[in-house]
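Entry:
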Amino acid sequence: MASNQKQKSPAASETMDILMEMSRLLNTGLDEETMAVCLRLCENGINPEALAEVIKELRRESANVKANESGNTT
């Protein structure tokens, strides 16, 4: 991803920095790569609210899987 950083325009880099700071302030837990994917999806017409719901659902399912795995190993 370091080569992608060099290829970004200063405006795009600043925008990503701002989005990452907002993400941290809101405690989204999204890393820079995930944020970049979400941004590209939104730029390509994906509804941001629907994307947020999908991310929340994936996190719930992941937590359920982890809980089931830890419950089965006890």
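The two ends are 39 Å apart (CA to CA).
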